[in-house]
Amino acid sequence: MNINLGETAVDLIINILNILILFVIVKLLVYKPVKKFLDDRKARINEETSKAQKILDEATDTLKSKDLLLEESRKNAEAESEKIISEAKANADFIVAEAKKNAKTAEEKANAEIKAKKENFVASSKDEIAELAVNIAERILSRETNSKDNEKIIEDFFDEVNI
To answer: In this structure, are residues 154 and 137 in contact, taking their beta carbons and an 8 Å threshold?
Structure first.
């Protein structure tokens, strides 16, 4: 391998010069516009931040005044609520008294109806039981039977009347 040191030194110097020229071009064409853009952006951000702070201060003042109004409204609402509650309690007491009176009347009426229905049911049940007993006796007496036949007749009869 033959390496020519003279050519290598020249190549090295040319590369260094290329890098320096490239650095100067990049600085002039890219760095300054980018720096200007970033400086402008920083100024806009600072301006927007100050505007936002002013808006925040105004919002804080408005919030404080709204809080005062809200507190006053809350106190008024509590007073009105207490008044309505006391009126509602009075109305509720009256309604409960009327409801108890009506319930007692309805209970007495229902008890009377139940008693009448019970008496009717007992009377009709007695009639039905007597009729069933007669029908069973007729079937038993209609032929001469033994105890097995009697049980069979009774079961058949109850199956017919669905009891």
So the answer is: no
